[in-house]
Design the sequence.
């Protein structure tokens, strides 16, 4: 069994820093992609209403675009969950072993 680390040692640990860096990177990228897609939709509503009102099948183009936006958010969530289950959990376990839990 390894010795317990102080909170300062944990914060300075290379594995913990890598864990925090990766989590911040993926969270930031996915958040920015989500925000960009929603802002693009809002800009489309504001400046190109006719594009959203274009008729298709039994409705307008706005409905499938809105549904696509929701599906895109689910996809981004799935990407994060996959990353958390494959990479993040392994790094957390490595840090926990050092901490002595």
Sequence:
């Amino acid at each position: 069994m390894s010795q317990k680390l102080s909170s300062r040692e944990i914060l300075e640990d290379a594995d913990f820093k890598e864990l925090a860096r990766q989590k911040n990177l993926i969270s930031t990228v996915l958040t920015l992609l989500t925000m960009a897609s929603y802002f693009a939709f809002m800009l489309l509503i504001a400046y190109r209403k006719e594009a959203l009102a274009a008729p298709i099948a039994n409705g307008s183009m706005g409905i499938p675009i809105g549904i696509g936006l929701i599906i895109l958010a689910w996809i981004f969530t799935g990407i994060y969950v996959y990353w958390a289950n494959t990479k993040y959990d392994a790094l957390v376990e490595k840090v926990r072993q050092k901490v002595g839990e």
Observations:
- Residues 62-99 form the longest helix (38 residues).
